[in-house]
Design brief:
By secondary structure, the chain is an alpha/beta fold. It has helices spanning 2-15, 30-36, 67-72, 99-105, 140-159, 171-182, 184-190, 207-215, 233-245, 247-258, 269-276, 282-290, 337-347, 375-386, 410-429; strands at residues 42-47, 52-59, 76-81, 108-113, 123-124, 164-169, 191-197, 228-229, 280-281, 324-329, 355-359, 395-396, 399-400, 403-404, 408-409. Strands 1, 2, 3, 4, 5, 6, 7, 10 and 11 form a nine-stranded mixed beta sheet that branches. Helix 6 (171-182) crosses helix 7, helix 9 crosses helix 10 (247-258) and helix 9 runs antiparallel to helix 11 (269-276).
Length: 430
C-alpha cells in the first residue's frame, strides 16, 4: 500500500507540466511558520560533541508577544522532539491549534528541537552531507548517546533553569527512554517530567515496518550513494500537490501507511507531507528495522560482522524519580499498542508511570495534525503543569535588616536565612 501510494504521487507529478500552486507553508521552516502565525520565535545552532550542527527553534511566549517581552517572563522550558523522517516543522504546521502553540499559550517556553540528518540537522563541522558518507554513518544510537543530551544541556544553559519538561514523539520518545536508562542521574538532575507519544523502541508488532522490510529486504528506497535516505524534490512536490487537490484521498493514503485515524486535520495535509518525509541515514532506518525481529530495544549491529545483540536496559529507567506519561494508540500502524504496552512494563520496574493512556482514534502521525483542540493536547499540558513547581532559577524578594535581597535565587536566599537564624541563636545562647 505504501509503494502504491508513493507511486501514484510520482505518476501524477510526472504527468503534470504546470507549475504547482501549493500552500506557502510547504516552503516555510519552523520559525517562518511560527512568526506568520503571530508568535515570537528565534533559532539557535548547537554543535554536538561529534561535530553535527543542529538547529533548535524557540517559541518563548504567547501570541502577539514580542520576542523581548516573552524572554523577560522566563517561562519553564519544554522540549518537543520529533520522530523518524520528521523535524520540528510539524509541531507548528497545522496552524493556530498546533501542539507548539498550545504549549506556548499554556505558559511554557517551547523548544522545537532537531536531531542529526534532517533538513535542520544536515550540517557538520567537517563532513559534507552531499559527498561524504561519514556524515551519514549514524544510527539511533548516536541520537540516544549524543544528540538528546546536547540538546537538553543547551536549552538549560540558555534559559537558566535547572530542569525542563520533555515531550518526544516516536523515535524522539524512544530515544529519551533509552538514554535515561543508560545514564539515569543525568536525566533525573535535568528533566522534570517526560511525555512519550507512541515511543519507537520495540517494533516487533509494527505493521509499517513489517511491510517495509518485506518490500525492501535488501535495497532501501530513496537511497543515495553516500548512505543518505532522501525522497527527491519531485516526490515531495507530487505528494503535496495531490494532497492539495484530493485531501480526503491523501488522508486515506497516510492512514494506510502509518495510521492517522479520523481525527487528522486534512486542511493542511499538503504541508504535512511536504515537511514530514525528511532526510535520514540508511543506517538509522536499518537500525529501526532490526527492532522488528523480537521484543526488545537493541543497539545497532552489523549482522555480516557477527555483532551480538546488545539491548538497552529499559528496566533501568528512573520512572520513580521522573514523572512519566506514556501514550499509545490502537490506530497506530507504526508503533503497535502491543509494543507500547511492552515498553510500559519495562520502564515501570522502578515505579509505575504516572500516566498511561491508550487512545482509540489517534494514529501515529495524528499527534502532529489533529483536528481542532482535541482533548489529548489538554492532557499533555495538564501533565506538565502538574509537574511544574518552583525551581531554583525563579527569584524571590526579601527585606531583612533594611537590606534588599531582590533577585537572589531561591536556594541562595534560603542559605542566607539559615545563616541568619544560626547567628541569632548563637547570640541568644551567649
Amino acid at each position: 500500500m505504501i509503494i502504491i501510494f508513493l507511486g501514484i504521487f510520482n505518476v501524477v507529478y510526472s504527468l503534470s507540466s504546470q507549475s504547482l500552486h501549493l500552500h506557502p507553508d510547504t516552503h516555510r521552516n519552523t520559525q517562518e511558520m511560527a512568526i506568520n502565525q503571530g508568535y515570537p520565535c528565534e533559532n539557535y545552532t548547537i554543535e554536538t560533541t561529534d561535530g553535527y550542527l543542529l538547529t533548535l527553534f524557540r517559541i518563548p511566549g504567547k501570541h502577539s508577544e514580542t520576542l523581548e517581552e516573552a524572554k523577560l517572563k522566563r517561562r519553564f522550558p519544554v522540549i518537543l522532539q520529533h520522530g523518524l523522517l520528521d523535524n520540528s516543522d510539524n509541531f507548528v504546521m497545522i496552524g493556530k491549534s498546533a501542539l507548539a502553540y498550545t504549549m506556548a499559550e499554556a505558559g511554557f517556553d517551547v523548544w522545537l528541537t532537531n536531531t542529526r540528518g534532517n533538513r535542520h540537522g544536515r550540517r557538520h563541522t567537517m563532513f559534507n552531507p552531499d559527498t561524504n558518507p561519514a556524515f551519514w554513518d549514524f544510527s539511533v544510537d548516536e541520537i540516544i548517546a549524543v544528540d538528546i543530551k546536547c540538546i537538553i544541556t543547551f536549552v538549560l544553559k540558555v534559559t537558566g533553569f535547572e530542569q525542563l519538561h520533555y515531550l518526544g514523539h516516536s523515535m524522539g520518545a524512544g530515544a529519551i527512554f533509552a538514554s535515561a536508562s543508560e545514564d539515569p542521574e543525568f536525566f533525573v538532575k535535568r528533566v522534570r517530567s517526560v511525555i512519550g507519544l507512541s515511543p519507537a523502541t520495540s517494533l516487533a508488532h509494527s505493521e509499517f515496518f513489517a511491510h517495509f522490510a518485506y518490500y525492501f529486504p535488501v535495497q532501501l528506497p530513496f537511497r543515495h550513494s553516500t548512505g543518505e535516505l532522501a525522497p527527491s524534490k519531485a516526490t515531495h512536490e507530487a505528494l503535496s500537490y495531490v494532497c492539495s487537490l484530493f485531501p480526503a484521498a491523501c488522508a486515506v493514503g497516510v492512514d494506510a501507511a502509518m495510521g492517522s485515524g479520523d481525527l487528522i486535520n486534512t486542511e493542511k495535509l499538503e504541508v504535512l507531507v511536504a515537511r514530514a518525509v525528511d532526510h535520514t541515514s540508511e543506517k538509522l532506518l536499518r537500525h529501526l528495522l532490526q527492532q522488528t525481529e523480537e521484543d526488545g530495544y537493541h543497539h545497532y549491529r552489523r549482522p555480516k560482522h557477527g555483532d551480538p545483540k546488545i539491548p538497552y536496559n529499559l528496566k533501568n529507567y528512573p520512572s520513580r524519580r521522573i514523572p512519566t506519561a506514556l501514550i499509545g494508540s490502537h490506530h497506530d500502524r507504526l508503533v503497535s499498542i502491543i509494543d507500547t504496552r511492552w515498553l510500559r512494563d519495562q520502564i515501570s520496574v522502578n515505579g509505575p508511570v504516572k500516566l498511561y493512556k491508550e487512545y482509540e482514534e489517534i494514529g501515529h502521525i495524528t499527534y502532529m495534525a489533529l483536528k481542532g483542540n482535541y482533548q489529548c493536547y489538554k492532557d499533555f499540558v495538564e501533565f506538565f503543569v502538574q509537574n511544574t513547581q518552583p525551581v531554583k532559577q525563579q527569584t524571590l524578594e526579601y527585606q531583612l535588616h533594611s537590606v534588599s535581597y531582590t533577585h537572589l535565587r531561591a536556594h541562595e536566599t534560603l542559605r542566607y536565612l539559615v545563616c541568619r537564624l544560626l547567628l541569632e541563636k548563637k547570640k541568644i545562647n551567649q
